[in-house]
Amino acid sequence: TFCVLVIIFMLYLLVIYRKPNVNWGSSTQAAAYKSALNAAINLEQVGEHVKNYNPQLLVLTGKPLHRPSLLNFANLITKNHSLLIAGHVMEEKLTFKKRQELMTEGKKLMNELKLKSFYTITDGLPIEDGVRTMMQSTGFGKLTPNILMVGYKTTWRSCNSDELKQYYNILHTAFDNRLALTILRLPNGIDCSHLIPDSDTVDPQDLQPGVVSPAAFANSPAAQRLQKGLMPVNSNLDLHGMVPSSGQNTVTAPNPEARQKSTLAATKEFCLFTGKQPAGYIDVWWLYDDGGLTILLPYIISTRSKWSDCQIRVFALATNRASMEEERNNMITLLEKLRINYVTLTMVTVKDKPQEATIQMHRALIDTVLEDQETDTFVSESERIQLEEKTNRQLRLRELLLQYSKNASLIVLSMPIPRKGIVSAQLYMSWLEMLTKDMPPFLLVRGNQTS
């Protein structure tokens, strides 16, 4: 027996010394798969109730490297506790090899950024159909998204009508599939793809969340690659595509100062929502009963260590001034029942007429998309008059936001629902524009009407 043990031990040492390049795996990994499978099956038998609700996010990031701030913000909500899936919809039909390359690139980025999330791609479909397919097929069992998160479309006035209709219809598709909807708007926008020369020029390992200072990040290897434009050996650089059309073999060097500014701008996008947040306020405008998601998400964010210095201020809608005190007491009781820690509760009303300057500001906004007989999507004069009262509510709400929340660290507001067939895409986007324009980071939230 002793000899057998010695032989086994020697063979073990030999294997360790030679380090054969084989993929044997381990029994622990096999057990992990079995445990995960059994847990997912057992979860199917568990009924839904308040104690097992988790916000499970499907985030339309496109290429994750192009919208890091959107992904980082979503991670604030789901980190270590619930499901996060980054979705990428492509109209181009991908080959298996290209699809695997994109999947590997996306997974590597998330691993290096220490994001506990998944990355999925839907290809070969129009954007609208691809998003619908992703909503209906992503995940399995109880591990399926219940919240769709998208970035705010800042180009809604300049994009073509088909592109705007796609975006607008995606919002409706989320509601049709009983998903909650969130829209994130940042002061400098969500998409930073124009700041990154090529995704292959940035090593995700250089984009660690711990690097939170733009000045410090500017000296990092990633920033140096962005400045120098260096390409790694395994890049997909097409040398033929770099030959100038004039036939000359010279390439004009970019302005160093402009490149430095671009690098710093990209740096800020990667650093958003990853560092310690200074003391401030998370302002929650809980205006409609949507199941409580509008108050839940900011509460979750406030419990994160990096946002622990930010306190919650709650703003609620009063139906009229006469019953404001009674409604305030009811809201206090509800917040105590939900065990939400907050510093102030303010009751507001949006029945007052907005100031003339605000009305004119909105009028100037929609004048650019006012009725045009050559397009089938427009803000008609009849629609503007018919929905004037609803529009005035949003304009008055903007004035209140400027009055109370202009200096907040984050604003979370109940999103108005666009009525299909009644509110046009342009008018609805003008409402959102008025609510979020020139504001701090802004999250529009609408639950799926379930408690």
TrEMBL record:
Name listed for the protein in its UniProt record: Bumetanide-sensitive sodium-(Potassium)-chloride cotransporter
Span of domain SLC12A transporter C-terminal: 67-451
Chief subcellular location: membrane
Intracellular or extracellular location(s): Membrane
Classification via InterPro entries: SLC12_C (IPR018491), SLC12A_fam (IPR004842)
Keywords, comma-separated and alphabetical: Membrane, Signal, Transmembrane, Transmembrane helix
Organism per entry: Culex pipiens
Domain of life of the native organism: Eukaryota
Record-level Gene Ontology MF annotations: sodium:potassium:chloride symporter activity
Bilayer disposition of the protein: Multi-pass membrane protein
GO biological process: cell volume homeostasis; chloride ion homeostasis; potassium ion homeostasis; potassium ion import across plasma membrane; sodium ion homeostasis
Signal sequence segment: 1-18
Pfam families: SLC12
A single cellular component GO annotation: membrane
